[in-house]
Amino acid sequence: MGVSERRERERQARRDAVLTAARSVLLERGMRNTTTKEIAERCELSEATLFFYFKNKDEILLSLIFESIDFWKAGLTRLGKADLDPERLLDEIWKFHEKVYLEHPTYFVISASLAQPQMLENVSDEVKNDIAIRSGENFRRLASLLERVSATAPGRILADTIWSLFLGLTLSNAARANLGHGQAETGVRIRAHALEVLKTGLFAGKVP
Predict the structure, then answer these.
(1) What's the chain's average pLDDT?
(2) How far is CA 109 from CA 28, 32, 53, 128, 182, in A?
(3) Are 39 and 65 in a shared domain?
(4) Number of domains in the chain
(5) Same domain assignment for residues 38 and 95
(6) What percent of the chain stands above pLDDT 70?
(7) pLDDT digits (tens, 9 = 90+) for 102-123
(8) Residue 76 above 60 pLDDT?
(9) Residue 24, SS3?
(10) Residues with Cβ within 8 Å of residue 129, at least 6 apart in sequence
């Protein structure tokens, strides 16, 4: 391995360590209270060293946003290649949402935070447009999958419903947890029940 290649691998490893630390701090502190100083401390770097890999907090958050978009893209693309009946496909779509929440809860924190006006106030219009385009492509992937689930409910409406339902339930359970009245397993059960209610409406006329 050449010197330049080794340095690039070391640089990427440091960037990955910073992003891992950022995910941890974001979950504990929230978007607004997360600082580059705390991220640096979490991955055992000086703040000055962190700035060698990321210019500022916004650049770290943008890296996580695009990482999230790519993760959703890969999962939805994989589901698009699966040959499943409508009900099983809906189950797998929901399971993928649960997988993302279990493995990468930060992605949902970021998604919820995008509704806050100040979240992207220091981000250029060009980058905002890129986020919108790539997120929109994922929405269309989900909508296309859901067109296969129901012949009557439009895929776009189902996509909005699935996303809003899952995100809303995760946020409400997190709020209860913050008040000392919520647990992760309770959230999973509630979301599973909500899916069954949705399926009852979608597949009510299904012939066994």
Answers:
(1) 91
(2) 11, 11, 23, 18, 17
(3) no
(4) 2
(5) no
(6) 97
(7) 999 999 888 888 888 778 888 8
(8) yes
(9) helix
(10) none
